[in-house]
Amino acid sequence: MAKDPFTTRYEDLPEILPVFPLSQVILLPGGRLPLNVFEPRYLALVQAALARDRLFGMIQPVDEEAGGDAPPLYSVGSVGRIVHFSETDARQMFVVLHGVCRFRVRAEEPGEEGFRRLNVDYAPFREDVAVPGGGVLDASREHIAQVLKRYVEAHALEVDLRALESLSLPSLVVTLSMALPFEAPEKQALLEAPTLERRYAALCALMEMGAMGGAAGDAPQ
After folding, report:
1. How far apart are CA 157 and CA 116, in angstroms?
2. Angle, vertex CA 179, rays to CA 176 and CA 185, nearest 5
3. CB 217 within 8 A of CB 158
4. CB neighbours of 203 closer than 8 A, spacing ≥ 6?
5. How does DSSP classify residue 160?
6. Residue 76's closest CA among 216, 173, 193?
7. Is residue 139 located within the same domain as residue 201?
8. pLDDT computed for residue 3 by the predictor
C-alpha cells in the first residue's frame, strides 16, 4: 500500500529532530501553529525540513537569557508537520505547522546550519498520533466559555468568541491552550498535561487566575 503523503505515522517520526526553540509558544497534537520565519538559521531549518519529511519540533527555552545562542530547553516539546508555506517579499517564510506528537528530550545532537537538533523519544506520548487532540472530553462547554469571557475582558483581548463556538470542545481546549498569552511555565504545564481532562482543568484554572490578576508562574500541576 502506498504511503499517505498527508499523514505522519508514528513509525515515521525521526529520532533526530531539528527544533525551533521559542518561548511562550507550544504546539499541541491536532493544533495548527502559524510561524513567520526570518532568522537565517530557522530559514535553513524550514528548508531542510521541506527537503526531507516536512517535520520539525517546537520546544520552549527554560531561560532565554541563559546559554547564549543555545539556552537550556524544557524536557518536553512537540513535533509538527509543515502543511503550508509561502515566501514573502521581505525574504521571509510563512509556515503553518500541524501538531503530530509530543516528545521527551533524550540528548542534544550536534547542530546543522545553525539550528539545533535533539535526540527525542515519542514513546511516552504515542497516543498523540492515534488520537490527535486527545479524543472525547466529558466536561462543561458552558463553564469554559464563561471563564474565557471573563479572561478576555480582564485582559482586553480581541477574541472572536462567536467564531470559537464552531469548534468541538477538544479542539477549543487545544486552540486556547496554544493561543492565549500565558507565561512559559504555564504554557509548558498545558503541553505536559497527561490527559485532555487535565489540560481542560489546567486551562480553566489559568484563565480564572488571569481574570483575577493571578501571578504568572502559578500554573497548576
Report:
1. 34
2. 90
3. no
4. 144, 173, 176, 177, 190
5. -
6. 193
7. yes
8. 66
Contact present, 220 and 197 (Cβ < 8 Å): no
Whether 127 and 144 share a structural domain: no
Distance separating alpha carbons of residues 105 and 77, to the nearest angstrom = 8
Cell of 137: 472530553
Q: Rounded to an integer, what distance in angstroms lies between the CA atom of residue 204 and that of residue 221?
A: 13
Residue 219 falls within a domain, yes or no? no
Q: What is the pLDDT of residue 4?
A: 72
Question: Any idea what the Cα angle at residue 196 is, between residues 162 and 15, rounded to 5°?
Answer: 115
Cβ(87)–Cβ(93) under 8 Å? yes
Domain boundary among 105, 132, 159: 132
Q: Are residues 101 and 148 in the same domain?
A: no
Same domain, yes or no: 125 and 153: no
Q: Are 41 and 114 in contact (CB under 8 A)?
A: yes
Examine residue 4 and state whether it is found in any structural domain, yes or no.
Answer: no
Cα–Cα distance for residue pair 145/103, rounded to 1 Å: 30
Per-block mean pLDDT, blocks of 10 residues, the chain (221 long): 75 96 96 96 95 97 79 97 92 96 97 93 95 76 94 92 91 96 97 95 96 57 45
Cell numbers representing residue 198 in the block:
487535565
Range of the domain at 57: 10-132
Query: Is 144 found in the same domain as 112?
Result: no
Residue with cell 501538531: 99
CATH number at residue 76: 2.30.130.40
Domain final residue, candidates 132, 149, 168 = 132
